[in-house]
Amino acid sequence: MAPPLQTSAFLSPGLGVHPSRQADLQRCLLCDQRDANLCSGLDKQGLAALAQSSKRLVLPPGTTMVEEGEPAVSFFNVTQGTVKLFKSLPDGRRQITGFADPGQFLGLSPSDVYSFGAETVDTVQVCRFQRPQLEGLLSDFPVFERNLLVAVTDRLAEAQEQMLLLGRKTAKEKVASFLLDRLQAHERAQATAAAHDHDEPAATTEHVASVPMTRIDIADYLGLTIETVSRTISALRREKIIANMENHYIQILAPATLRQIASGQQNG
Amino acid sequence: MAPPLQTSAFLSPGLGVHPSRQADLQRCLLCDQRDANLCSGLDKQGLAALAQSSKRLVLPPGTTMVEEGEPAVSFFNVTQGTVKLFKSLPDGRRQITGFADPGQFLGLSPSDVYSFGAETVDTVQVCRFQRPQLEGLLSDFPVFERNLLVAVTDRLAEAQEQMLLLGRKTAKEKVASFLLDRLQAHERAQATAAAHDHDEPAATTEHVASVPMTRIDIADYLGLTIETVSRTISALRREKIIANMENHYIQILAPATLRQIASGQQNG
DNA sequence: CGACCACCTTGATATAGATCAAGCCAGCAG
DNA sequence: CTGCTGGCTTGATCTATATCAAGGTGGTCG
Questions:
Q1: Phi and psi angles of residue B253, each rounded to the nearest 5 degrees, phi first
Q2: Helices and strands counted in chain B (H then E)
Q3: pLDDT digits over B29-41, tens only?
Q4: How far away is chain B from the Cα of A18, in angstroms, using its nearest Cα?
Q5: Looking at the partner chain, which of B41, B97, B153 has a beta carbon nearest the beta carbon of A1?
Q6: Would residue B8 count as lying in a domain?
Q7: Has residue B268 been placed in a domain?
Q8: Do A163 and B163 touch (CB under 8 A)?
Q9: Antiparallel, parallel or unpaired: β A94-100 and A83-88
Q10: Tens digits of per-residue pLDDT, A109-159?
Q11: Which of B91, B108, B149, B229 should one mutate to test binding to chain A, selecting the residue with the greatest count of A CBs within 10 A?
């Protein structure tokens, strides 16, 4: 009776599977991300079912997880690292529609074929579900289905926010919004780490944004060119609103100013 | 246990309610849109519950249905007409994130406050659900919850397509894509009408797009100005790809060409 | 150690689409 | 019928961002 819920993904079978843990019923119970989105609110039985229905994978940077147009057979929950989701035009123009950070799912598609591509940005850990198993979980655990509905609703709201950015914000506003997103992503990751590391009371990291992706990815996410992204970041640095840190981190010196820029209330 | 699923809307109580039909248990059973998305797959009992949990409203053009930032108390299913959904920046810049045509829902929000605004484009009929009733239906009728999950997934895929348009398509490609969307919307409406009007075998309307919204709305949907929209439509008319009809309809003379333009494979 | 490569930055110039400015057209009120 | 209003079209000019072009930097590998 229920319409088939399609999920998507393409991945060579077994790639990255941790053989020793495949059948570990405790895996989800012990997971860092247990309380994140999809897996929250489940009892021990539910978590065991989840562990049995999924496999944990570790994927190196640049791995194609989902290819547009391929049969949608897998569904993923990200537990570590960052995945980029994108759509492309025949001539190669590309739009990154979002980055999936730990706690986020990916792989739902409205048809039996994926409507987007997905590729790892850095080293990524995911739990992979095959579609039949996912369907079983949705039917057997109403909390799980409700979690997924809430998660998809969240993503839709994010997409609407991103449409506002793409259609109506200037380059500077786009970059400011992006940096704030990445600040939030890093803060969430820190919070999760702290919650599972009871000794260290989490030294309040001073406004650091995690930016594991390249300028090309940022440009394709913001609807700009890499040159404009680079120039805009340089301008923010000159204005002492941000500062460079090591490799893939940017320090936000003036978060309030950045927030004003992002919402179009200031032009620096 | 299930996280509260928030829905949104602001509407003066009772506005547009058809008093005589409020309690009509047959209403959903007899509805044109019964098989559309949310309400499909329900048995008589389910349809009766749906009818009891919702009210049918008729809203004139330009009615504010949902206002960004107001408590999210209502959820709607559109049965007639077109609603625009949008987000705005403090200085008034606006992005229309989508048009809800018959068969589409609106009103879900990730928090207890709506994250977007919604306004009728033309005369609109909707079924309105208050949040507690919606929650009840989702819990009592798994088919209904599954339908909603599928519908939200569809909207997310549309949003991703629209991000590709906003970030990476030219003005001409944007307008071509929009006209094809409106062609599809009109074809779906015709099909629904035909299915409920068994006498008339639905004279295959020759590629007509329904465009009830103004140039301002189109511009705010495509991330352009009204002048650019107007110029681009004029150019397509000059190229004999489209032709004007009465007020709010546009005839598509060369759908294949339009499709090529929309996907970036031709520049005319 | 050197040189290659991927990625990033900065500068000069070009252009798609925005902005500014008129005027047109249809429907409605008087 | 006349004039007003809201929505649309068209033209002239401007500008934010793209494009073209030239280095710079840091990590890796022979």
A1: -80, -35
A2: 7, 11
A3: 888 787 778 888 8
A4: 30
A5: B41
A6: no
A7: no
A8: yes
A9: antiparallel
A10: 999 999 999 999 999 999 999 999 999 999 999 999 999 999 999 999 999
A11: B149
